[in-house]
Amino acid sequence: MPELPEVETVRRGLLPAMEGRLIERAEVNRPDLRWPLPENMAKRLTGTRVLALRRRSKYILADLSSGEILLIHLGMSGRMLVSGITLGDFFHDHAAPEKHDHVVLHLEGGARVTFNDARRFGAMDLLPTATAEQHPLLAEIGPEPLGNAFNEAYLAAKLQNRNTPIKSALLDQHLVAGLGNIYVCETLYRARIAPDTRAGAIPDAGRLVPIIREVLAEAIEAGGSSLKDYRRTDGELGYFQKAFAVYGREGQPCQTPGCTSTIARMVQSGRSSFYCPTCQR
Ligand SMILES: [Zn+2]
After folding, report:
1. How far apart are CA 214 and CA 192, in angstroms?
2. Domain FPG-type: where (predicted)?
């Protein structure tokens, strides 16, 4: 499942193709993804301009001149692929249409943006701009981990009286937006905190904030983590998975200098937590 760094990488890849550009034509090739696509979607997109392309949590939001916002969620296997313009050093030609190309946007300037999703857990919706913040998917989300509202005082106060394990607390999207299993495991390793530690028992819990930001910033820099289906907008892989210290490394040696332990795995709320039993207490 793409987490914040993967979605941010996709957003940055879409910027040169979409931001400020007119959508000259839209193809909508099926009535639904995870949920039904909006009615008359192709017509509502055609002739509108993308004023800005933002990210909120794991959603990409395109502010349209029509007074609507196009919400894009990659789900499990969704890809947004850009062709027809130069990305980085390379010109990406239009590929032949593929079986799971569900929505295709033809943009002013020659770019084509294709939403491809083999498993269809992704979603797209059109929301009135004026009330977008109240949309069920957006209304309850906590602060952005890279934004100013997520600071040491905020996190310390939120964790103070929590009896849940720190792993579950950081995965709670009401507390902070966009963090998932991978980046929480890596954060707790760097903070030397065991994933089952009671959140309220962590001294100076605000110190997690700069660690979370550091992990996310490094992951964005690496183009995200490609574990299964995730691709950047040029079709290439992200490579932060090569930098994982604990995630998916059960039984392999801990990378902390001087530590002779191997990485362990425990299951919390049905999900695997990877950690070093010696370094993380
Ligand atoms: Zn260790």
Report:
1. 15
2. 245-281
